[in-house]
Amino acid sequence: MLCFAEKDFLQRVLCGAGSANIRGEQVHMFKKKAQIQKASYDKENQIPVMKCSICNGERVVGFKDIHTGKFEEVLFVRNDRDLEEFKAKYGVETIGKEY
Predict the structure, then answer these.
(1) Hey, how many other C-beta atoms are within 10 angstroms of the C-beta on 73?
(2) Which of 17, 70, 71, 81 is most enclosed, with most CB atoms within 10 A?
(3) Residue 48 burial (CB count, 10 A)
(4) DSSP code per residue over 59-89
């Protein structure tokens, strides 16, 4: 017996309703790469920093206030691609590390 999602999937494929995955979402072979919107930060009072956990390897990038030391989290880094997108978005070349 087929569940509802499988029946819906088969109906979409057989009826030519476009390409769909098992959840019924549209799947496209060729997608346009999403444009990275530029963002800014207070370059006079903040520096880009990556906080790294020595226990589990977790990495978070954000900005640290040079006067107060307060850290503002911006992005949880899952892979190197996330880090590169952060650098491109904020125009950062180097990021300091804190453990």
Answers:
(1) 10
(2) 71
(3) 20
(4) EEEEEEETTT--EEEEEEE-SHHHHHHHHHH
